[in-house]
């Protein structure tokens, strides 16, 4: 079993989107029993909350269901569990590096390292308009394909 954790700040916009999109791609490739998907936030503000309704609506238009997800905070214990811990931006990554035990042997990095595009970070859509949520989906879909290709080579 390969375990993948997506991490943003609040775990209500970007990482739940990545969780829902990647989970859907894993399911449609028949790999649900080989790849476990989860998400978390570096901050605790929204713990227990469902994803932002704007993220849920934008994802639903593309056929992804985020409604069952609930926010939780990323923990040091996640490093004992997850093979891939993928941050949405460099601030999330810096916060995760501060939490990472020295002996972690998995992959901690930026999610968009798995996409072919110019952008390195998934921008926080929380304070912007609907276009930000569409942009998050575009970036997440591209990186999800790249990530699945890499993991499939290891299965
Ligand atoms: P996320 O977006 O990190 O993509 O879930 C945010 C959600 C909430 C806040 C910031 C970013 N906030 O400040 O409450």
Describe the structure.
The N and C termini lie close together (9 Å). A 4-stranded parallel sheet has the order 2-1-3-4. 39% of the residues are buried. The chain has helices at 14-28, 53-61, 78-81, 90-99, 130-154; strands at 2-8, 35-41, 84-87, 107-110. The chain has 155 residues and is α/β, with parallel strands linked by helices. The model has no long low-confidence stretch (mean pLDDT 98). The chain binds 4-nitrophenyl phosphate. Residues 8-14, 41, 45, 124, 126 line the site of 4-nitrophenyl phosphate.
Topology:
Blueprint: E1 2-8, H1 14-28, E2 35-41, H2 53-61, H3 78-81, E3 84-87, H4 90-99, E4 107-110, H5 130-154
Parallel strand pairs: 1-2, 1-3, 3-4
Helix pairs in contact: 1-5, 2-5
The chain binds 4-nitrophenyl phosphate (4NP).
4-nitrophenyl phosphate binds at residues 8-14, 41, 45, 124, 126.
Any key phrases for this structure?
binds 4-nitrophenyl phosphate; 41% helix; alpha/beta; 5 helices; 155 residues
Widest β-sheet, arrangement of strands: 2-1-3-4
Attached small molecules: 4-nitrophenyl phosphate
- Average pLDDT for all residues: 98
Shape: globular
Number of helices: 5
Into which percentage range does the β-strand content fall? 5-15%
Q: Which residues form runs of ≥5 with pLDDT under 50?
A: none
CA-based gyration radius: 14 Å
- Series of H and E elements: EHEHHEHEH
Q: In which range does the helix fraction lie? A: 40-55%
DSSP strand count: 4
Secondary-structure-based class equals alpha/beta
Sheet having the most strands: 4 strands, parallel
End-to-end span in angstroms? Answer: 9 Å
């Amino acid at each position: 079993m390969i375990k993948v954790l997506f991490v943003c700040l609040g775990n209500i916009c970007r990482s739940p989107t990545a969780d829902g999109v990647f989970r859907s791609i894993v399911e449609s490739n028949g790999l649900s029993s080989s790849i476990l998907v989860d998400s978390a936030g570096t901050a605790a503000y929204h713990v227990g909350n469902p994803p932002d309704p704007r993220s849920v609506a934008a994802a639903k238009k593309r056929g992804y269901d985020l409604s069952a997800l609930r926010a939780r905070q990323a923990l040091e214990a996640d490093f004992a569990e997850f093979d891939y811990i993928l941050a949405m931006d460099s601030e999330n990554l810096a916060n995760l590096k501060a939490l990472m035990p020295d002996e972690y042997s998995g992959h901690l990095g930026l999610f968009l390292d798995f996409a072919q595009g110019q952008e390195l970070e998934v921008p926080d859509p929380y304070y912007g308009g609907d276009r930000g949520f569409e942009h998050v989906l575009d970036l997440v879909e591209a990186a999800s394909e790249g990530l699945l290709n890499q993991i499939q080579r290891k299965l």
